[in-house]
Amino acid sequence: MGLGVGLIGSGYMGKCHALAWTSVATVFPDVERPRLVALADATPELAQQQALGFGFGRGTGDWRDLVADPAIDVISIAAPNQFHAEMAVAALEEGKHVWCEKPMATSLEDATRMRDAAKQSGRAAILGYNYIQNPMIRHARAIIDEDRIGTVNHIRLEMDEDYMADPTERFYWKSEEASGYGALDDFAVHPLSLLSVLHGRITSVVADMAKPYAERPANDGGTRSVENHDIAQALFRTEAGASGVLMVNRSAWGRKGRIALQIFGSKGSILFDQERMNELQVYSTNDPIGLQGYRTLLAAPPHTPYRQFIPAPGHGLGFNELKVIECYELLQAISGSRNAHVIDFERGLEIERIVHATARSAQSRGWVDL
Length: 370
Known about the structure:
Layout: E1 4-8, H1 12-27, E2 35-40, H2 44-54, E3 58-60, H3 64-68, E4 74-77, H4 84-93, E5 97-100, H5 108-121, E6 125-127, H6 135-145, E7 152-160, H7 183-186, H8 189-198, E8 202-210, E9 215-217, E10 223-225, E11 231-238, E12 243-249, E13 258-265, E14 268-273, E15 279-284, E16 295-298, H9 319-334, H10 345-364, E17 368-369
Parallel strand pairs: 1-2, 1-4, 2-3, 4-5, 5-6, 7-12
Antiparallel strand pairs: 7-13, 8-11, 8-17, 9-10, 11-12, 13-14, 14-15, 15-16
Helix pairs in contact: 1-9, 4-5, 5-10, 8-10
């Protein structure tokens, strides 16, 4: 019998989790089909409605019901950021495995508590960094490991979207201080997750953050002050000796889902853009003079695990397919595999340390060592 699943939150990311749990055994037949036991949301009525739509056995207005349910083996957390720590720690203390959306938590203390709870429980606990699951990102790592671009000496990371670009959009929870620093932990954690799997640790950082709009319209007809920052940028140094740039903006008109990655080495370079997520561009000085230039690689069956979805090259995967891959990797971690391609709570805490060091740098206006 497959693992029993409990889902907390049925919004955008909750639906992504539900789709992944529903599809994982169809795409990867070497795993048992999970059982969708229960769904929790803000009210019993909403939870019942969403449980029916998503295929869960029941709905509840209290997430603690899922943590206490012996029929549930793994908890998916897709609730707002400020609730992650309480939910994850409670689930782990009850012996549940945890799949928690990013960012890990809104404070370093809470993220550390989550890491410690995971270590003490011995259960699998991973974070929702699904962009690392892209077959083209995995292929980029293989290119680096095979020394095809030589020693990496400079990295540029960008993430931009425009869902907060309109100054007339009403204030909502993502602009509250309680949800975190803003673009830095809402956004920057994704390119930082790519850096984590492609290159390694950041050792020092200097940063700045900005508010393009100091106020937004409020529901009562007045205005409300924006409490965090929609733009952040930083220079950084890595343990391996590379320099780097990080730029994130969630008020960037025209950008929809852009994570731009440039990795420069002594023998070539790699370019990737999430808005063209089924492509990877590679430049190699090993090519003959006159033929040197960026070549565009299209996602294809040789790029693991693309063939699990599509048998032909160039057809392309999407965001939700990456979530299905992440779900599979979670199941591998639960089964005890040491090769599961995930960012667990230990590795996630490293990303959180970078986020908080970057925020301290912006506040102190100086370099901060990690």
